[in-house]
C-alpha cells in the first residue's frame, strides 16, 4: 500500500511539473528535461508512468475528470448538477485541474489531441442523460447528445469567462446560473422541483470531496466504509 | 469617399496582419516590425491608425463586435437570436473575427486586456435584455446581468468546442441548441412562440450580412436605401 501511495505521489509530481511547464512555455516548446528537473524525479520514474511528452499532456488533460465516481443520488439529474459543482470547486482549488482545462482550450497547443477532453466530458454527461431519460427524469423531446455537448461547451466557456473577469471567484454562482437556465428546458417538472442547484449544495459537495481526498492522501482507503 | 474607403482598407490590412502574427507567434512575442512587413504598409500609416502593439490588440479584439446595428425586429429577443447567428456566421467566414476570439481566449496573452471583449459582449446582451424586460418579453424573475453573462460565456465555450471538434462546421447547430435550451427559461410564452431560432433564419441572416458587406466594400453606402 505504501508503495502504491508513493507511485500515486510520483505520478502527481510529474503531472504538476508538466502542467507548470506547459503553462509557462506552451506545450510545443516544453521539454521532457525541464519537466524532469521541475518534478525532481528520475528519468526511469518518468518513463515508468509516461511514454512521451504527448503522453504527459494526455495525463494533464485527463486530470479534469474525476477519478472517483460521485456519491449516487436519488435522480441522475442531481448527480449531473453535483458534477458541475465539483468541477467548479476543483477548478478553484487544484492547479492541475486548471492547467488541464487551460491546455484543452489553448489553441496554440497543436500536436495535442485537444478534442479528447471535450469528448470525454460529452461522453460522461451523455451517459448520465441517457440514464435520466430512461428513468423519465428528462422530457421526451431532449436530444441527449445535443444537450451533453451544450453542457460541456457552455461550462468550458463560463469557466474561461470567470477566470478572465475575476480569477474564478464567482464560478459557483455562474454554474448555478447555467443550471437554472438549462435544466427547466430538459427536466420533467416533478424532478426539477426536487433538484438542489443552490450554492449551499455546492459548498456541501466541496467539503465532502476534500474530506475523501485527504483520507486518500493519508494512504487510507478512499471511502472509510468500504 | 474614395479616401475614406482606402483608410478602411488600410486599417483592415493592419488588423489582418496583426491577427495573423499574434496567432502564429503569440501576442507577447509579436513585433510591430513583423506586422508592418506582413501588412505591406508604411510605419506612418500604422501609427495613423494604431498607437502601439496593445492598441492593435484592442483593434483585433474589437473586430468580434458588429460595427453596424442589426436590422430591428419585432421583439428584442429575436434581435438577440439574430446576433448569435451572425456571430456564428462571422466566426465561420472571417479570419479576423476568429483571431479576435482566439486572442480573447488565449490565456498566454498577458499584457492584453482580455476582459474587455467579454465585458463588451455582456454589455451588448444586457442592453438588449433590459429593453426586452421593459417590454415584457422576458419573465419577471430574470436577472438581466446573470443571463447576459451566461449567454456570452456559454457562446465562447460552444464556439471553442465546435472549433476543436470540427473546425466550427456545426457552429450554427450548436447556437440553435443553446438558444433552444436557454430561451424557454427567460422568455414569456407568447414571445417564445414567435421566435425564429431555426437554421433557415441563420442562413437568411448570413446572406443579408454578406450583401451589405459587399456593397460597403465596393465603396457605396452600407444601406442602399439611405
From TrEMBL, chains A, B:
InterPro entries hit by this protein: ArpA-like, DNA-bd_HTH_TetR-type_CS, Homeodomain-like_sf, HTH-type_TetR-like_transc_reg, HTH_TetR, Tet_transcr_reg_TetR-rel_C_sf
Q: Which Pfam families match?
A: TetR_N
Positions of the DNA-binding region: 31-50
Does this UniProt record's set of keywords contain DNA-binding?
A: yes
Does the record carry rRNA processing as a key word?
Answer: no
SUPFAM superfamilies in the record, alphabetically?
Homeodomain-like, Tetracyclin repressor-like, C-terminal domain
Q: Which residues form the HTH tetR-type domain?
A: 8-68
Q: Which UniProt keywords apply?
A: DNA-binding, Transcription, Transcription regulation
Cite a single GO MF annotation. transcription cis-regulatory region binding
Q: What is this protein called?
A: Gamma-butyrolactone-binding protein
Species name: Streptomyces termitum
Amino acid at each position: 500500500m505504501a508503495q502504491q501511495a508513493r507511485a500515486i505521489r510520483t505520478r502527481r509530481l510529474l503531472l504538476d511539473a508538466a502542467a507548470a511547464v506547459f503553462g509557462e512555455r506552451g506545450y510545443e516548446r516544453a521539454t521532457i528535461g525541464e519537466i524532469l528537473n521541475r518534478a525532481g524525479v528520475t528519468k526511469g520514474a518518468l518513463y515508468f508512468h509516461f511514454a512521451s511528452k504527448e503522453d504527459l499532456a494526455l495525463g494533464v488533460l485527463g486530470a479534469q475528470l474525476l477519478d472517483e465516481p460521485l456519491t449516487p443520488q436519488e435522480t441522475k439529474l442531481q448527480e449531473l448538477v453535483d458534477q458541475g459543482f465539483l468541477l467548479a470547486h476543483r477548478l478553484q482549488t487544484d492547479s492541475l485541474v486548471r492547467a488541464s482545462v487551460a491546455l484543452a482550450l489553448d489553441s496554440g497547443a497543436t500536436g495535442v489531441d485537444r478534442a479528447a477532453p471535450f469528448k470525454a466530458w460529452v461522453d460522461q454527461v451523455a451517459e448520465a442523460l441517457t440514464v435520466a431519460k430512461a428513468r423519465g427524469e428528462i422530457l421526451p423531446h431532449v436530444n441527449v447528445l445535443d444537450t451533453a455537448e451544450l453542457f460541456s461547451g457552455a461550462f468550458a466557456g463560463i469557466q474561461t469567462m470567470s477566470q478572465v473577469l475575476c480569477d474564478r471567484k464567482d464560478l459557483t454562482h455562474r454554474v448555478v446560473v447555467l443550471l437554472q437556465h438549462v435544466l427547466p428546458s430538459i427536466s420533467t417538472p416533478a424532478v426539477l422541483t426536487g433538484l438542489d442547484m443552490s450554492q449551499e449544495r455546492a459548498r456541501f459537495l466541496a467539503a465532502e470531496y476534500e474530506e475523501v481526498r485527504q483520507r486518500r492522501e493519508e494512504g487510507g482507503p478512499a471511502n472509510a466504509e468500504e
